[in-house]
Predict the structure of TIM23 translocase.
Amino acid sequence: QDTDEFILPTGANKTRGRFELAFFTIGGCCMTGATFGALNGLRLGLKETQNMVWSKPRNVQILNMVTRQGALWANTLGSLALLYSAFGVIIEKTRGAEDDLNTIAAGTLTGMLYKSTGRV
């Protein structure tokens, strides 16, 4: 049985384009960064407050570290995903082709721009 699972408008592709996938990529990177940052913040918060007694000030310091690290990592990974997606869409539209070269070029340009700011 060879029937389509979804009804598509006439002339539409069966796969999503790079621009449509950019939203998933950016959101996924933000959520991954927030999760990783929160776990890292919890680790750092517990390490920095290990000499304190369990009390409200210790809990507040740990929560502050969790939210600070979560936001930092979410912003960083979200920004990288935005750059990668923007470069990918621009390269695809400029070349008029959808292939692996676009992905390689977008990743290379993103890495070069990120490292050019002096970050380690």
Remarks:
- The radius of gyration is 21 Å.
- The CA atoms of residues 41 and 66 lie 4 Å apart.
- The mean pLDDT is 86.
- The chain is about 75% helix and 0% strand.
